């Protein structure tokens, strides 16, 4: 799923300095040294990553209100979510699931195209490119709470600056955070403003890795701007593109803070996304079993999507760009 | 000659485009700053004013002085939690990364493969069980809940291992011939050499912990234990639609990070590239 994993897996059996392989002195202390180095991390890794995975599956098979002991119910939560349209789990989960998918479908293309365009622009030999890079990157350092407050004010229906200028130039007042489809547009806009920096920097690094001669040769051959973009730039940044698409999809799927703070899931429950639902079911309704099952289904979907993306986009790479 | 003029046109066109884009990107920040410096009664005015009619810092004083929303305390919490978490990550991860990169031991490749596989597992599936574990440890509503569980992550190990693999072996050999033990070699030779990688890991660990929202929201419940981002969401409720004050809080929350960025820009950009591609 992650291009980085693929890359280094070849170096597993790379060269090694034989510390603690027993050859040097062969004492028990020598043999223990590597384990002493990895032990601290391994302890945390097991307690806070491996155990929770198993424990999460366990919880999802139980009815648990967090106060009384969990009661085993087998696959009931999963059956409800998948097969029982009258259950509250079914209704809530699929509402949130499709809301999340909608956001991903709206947001990811924008979150790829805008940073790519900006990366190409700041890669051009022109004035102040370092300043522009900093400007576009800076918002991504803010917390989601800060970003949400900024946009809450800017998109305020009555007093917001966006509606002020809309009115001034003859547009109508738009209920950005309380009506569809505006609420989704608002969420996408604030996410774009907030997060494009990372992708832009990664695309930029990819662009700078494309040899200058390739551009020159294409120009001499009379290739136009668009043609160069599709035949040199796009194939040249296939790796960064794969990384950005997979990561951005994952991040968009995990959308939480923006709707939590700005739309509160509204209008109705139309922007209630999976992370909001899981928090609600788990930590407000204390239906831990349902929440754990929902989280596992969401996690599994995410894994599946990433794997499909990786498979589809990586297929071309094996054949090579030309 | 034809090439030259095309280049110049591209240069000018791109510059104009970038200026427009930058104005769009900066306008929200400028507007927020402007609002925060107005008296509340002038925050909402038609026609709107970019430059405050009356310049005042009263919103900042009100926000900083409000007892029900202790912004300074939240700032302190965030600083303490992110710093300690980063410090522990650097120790734990660099030690493990060094072993995985440079030592030979039974089960190493299997273990490392397991670590890398877990990088693909979406964190969402761990939140519910993790809460219960943290609760059993008595850490709910304490800083430990936000400092310790993240130490099980593997991203730092991955980055640092890549870096350690590139350090020449001769340095270690020489030290070993001089009689240095594994720990000495690690602390005296490897760590100082790894400074650039450690800075990158530190910066990203700190920032993601500092900005974390979902987990601190779940795992804290008293007002004094909140972190800055979660605190802001409380503040949103208590100063509902008092935008001048809300924007003062927004500026306060953004300022430290943006100032840090101003000075450490190079590291951020390099880090983002490293974590993205080479990483």
Automatic annotation (TrEMBL), chain A:
One of its GO terms (biological process) is transmembrane transport. Its main location: membrane. It comes from Melghirimyces profundicolus. Belongs to the binding-protein-dependent transport system permease family. Coiled coil: none annotated. One of its GO terms (cellular component) is plasma membrane. Pfam families: BPD_transp_1. This is Carbohydrate ABC transporter membrane protein 1 (CUT1 family). It is found in: Cell membrane.
TrEMBL record, chain B:
PROSITE patterns: ABC_TM1. It holds the Pfam family BPD_transp_1. GO terms for cellular component: plasma membrane. The keyword Membrane applies. The chain crosses the membrane at residues 12-33, 74-98, 110-132, 144-164, 185-207, 243-264. Residues 75-264 form the ABC transmembrane type-1 domain. Its main location: membrane. It is a multi-pass membrane protein. Keywords: Cell membrane, Membrane, Transmembrane, Transmembrane helix, Transport. Belongs to the binding-protein-dependent transport system permease family. This is Carbohydrate ABC transporter membrane protein 2 (CUT1 family). It comes from Melghirimyces profundicolus.
């Amino acid at each position: 799923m992650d291009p980085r994993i693929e890359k280094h897996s070849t170096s597993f059996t790379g060269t090694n300095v034989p510390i603690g392989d027993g050859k040097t002195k062969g004492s028990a202390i020598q043999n223990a040294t590597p384990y002493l180095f990895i032990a601290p991390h391994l302890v945390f890794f097991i307690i806070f990553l491996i155990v929770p995975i198993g424990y999460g599956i366990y919880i999802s098979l139980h009815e648990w209100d967090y106060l009384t002991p969990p009661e085993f119910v087998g696959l009931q939560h999963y059956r409800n979510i998948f097969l029982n349209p009258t259950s509250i789990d079914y209704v809530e989960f699929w509402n949130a699931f499709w809301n999340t998918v909608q956001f991903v479908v709206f947001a990811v293309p924008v979150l790829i195209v805008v940073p790519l365009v900006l990366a190409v622009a700041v890669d051009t030999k022109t004035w102040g490119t370092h300043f522009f890079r900093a400007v576009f990157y800076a918002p991504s350092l803010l917390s989601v709470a800060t970003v949400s407050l900024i946009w809450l004010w800017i998109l305020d229906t009555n007093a917001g600056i966006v509606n002020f200028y809309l009115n001034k130039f003859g547009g109508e007042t738009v209920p950005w955070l309380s009506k569809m489809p505006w609420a989704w547009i608002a969420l996408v806009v604030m996410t774009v403003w907030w997060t494009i920096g990372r992708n832009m920097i990664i695309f930029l690094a990819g662009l700078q890795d494309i040899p200058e001669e390739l551009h020159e040769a294409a120009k001499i051959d009379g290739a136009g701007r668009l043609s160069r973009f599709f035949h040199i730039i796009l194939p040249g940044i296939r790796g960064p593109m794969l990384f950005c698409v997979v990561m951005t999809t994952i991040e968009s799927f995990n959308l939480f803070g923006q709707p939590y703070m700005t739309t509160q899931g509204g209008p109705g429950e139309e922007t209630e996304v999976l992370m909001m639902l899981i928090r609600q079911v788990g930590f407000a309704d204390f239906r831990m079993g349902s929440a754990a099952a929902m989280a596992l289904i969401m996690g599994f979907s995410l894994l599946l999507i990433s794997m499909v993306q990786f498979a589809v986009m990586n297929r071309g790479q094996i054949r090579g760009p030309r | 000659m034809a090439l030259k003029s095309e280049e110049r046109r591209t240069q000018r066109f791109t510059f104009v485009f970038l200026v427009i884009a930058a104005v769009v990107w900066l306008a929200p920040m400028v507007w927020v700053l402007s609002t925060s410096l107005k008296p509340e009664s002038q925050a909402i005015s038609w026609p709107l004013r970019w430059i405050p009619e009356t310049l005042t810092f009263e919103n900042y004083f009100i926000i900083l002085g409000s007892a029900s929303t202790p912004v300074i305390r939240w700032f302190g919490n965030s600083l303490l939690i992110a710093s300690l978490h980063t410090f522990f990550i650097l120790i734990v991860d660099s030690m493990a990364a060094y072993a995985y990169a440079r030592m030979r031991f039974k089960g190493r490749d299997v273990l490392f493969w397991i670590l890398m596989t877990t990088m693909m597992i979406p964190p969402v599936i761990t939140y519910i069980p993790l809460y219960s574990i943290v609760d059993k440890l008595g850490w709910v509503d304490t800083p430990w809940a936000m400092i310790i569980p993240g130490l099980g992550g593997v991203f730092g190990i991955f980055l640092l291992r890549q870096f350690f693999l590139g350090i020449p072996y001769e340095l270690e050999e020489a030290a070993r011939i001089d009689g240095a033990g594994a720990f000495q070699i690690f602390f005296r030779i490897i760590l100082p050499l790894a400074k650039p990688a450690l800075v990158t890991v530190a910066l990203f660990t700190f920032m993601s912990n500092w900005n974390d929202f979902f987990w601190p929201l779940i795992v804290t419940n008293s007002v004094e234990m909140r972190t800055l981002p979660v605190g802001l969401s409380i503040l949103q409720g208590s100063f509902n639609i008092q935008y001048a004050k809300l924007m003062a809080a927004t500026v306060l929350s953004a300022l430290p990070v943006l100032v840090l960025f101003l000075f450490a820009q190079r590291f951020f950009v390099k880090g983002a590239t490293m974590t993205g591609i080479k990483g």
